[in-house]
Amino acid sequence: MKNLRTIILSAIVAGVLVVPGIPATAEAKDGREYSHFRKHDSHGKWKGDHGRRYGYHGRERDHGRYGRHHYRRDVRHYYRGHHNKAEIRQDFKDIRNARNEVRQGRKELRGDYQELRRDRAELRRDIRNGASEAEIRRDRQEIRADLREIRSDRRELWQDQAQLDAARRELKQDLRKR
Fold first, then answer.
1. Beta bridge partner(s), residue 46
2. 174 touches 86 (CB < 8 A)
3. DSSP letter at 84?
């Protein structure tokens, strides 16, 4: 009971000491908007908007709708209009075509591996069921042909990937030339 009385009494004393200070802090603004978040922006202008930007497409409120905007190296604006250059448009087309070739090559390679699995399963079935020597020889020839096809498709896929990498490098070089 004694602890409870002490807590209540200390809360009342703290409230009595805090209440007179509230009006004094409310009058400290003197009619102007003061905030400890005010800063100078990057152009030396005084801002009190906590770093927010207003207006058209992120331009600051002071410049208006079509005012000037100071860009640093911002990738959205740095390479603006590069799609209009014929050389760069062609680089994008080359990259797209090379990607499609790589995708088709992978699809062919997947199909060849599936065919190889089917032929091996057929060979195992024929051996298990006691098929003739000629049929087993034919199955083994099919497997060898599948392996040759896989090897050639892999080589084509590597060439297509190299072509895609070259097209990407060329696009990067053309964009750097600007």
1. 40
2. no
3. G
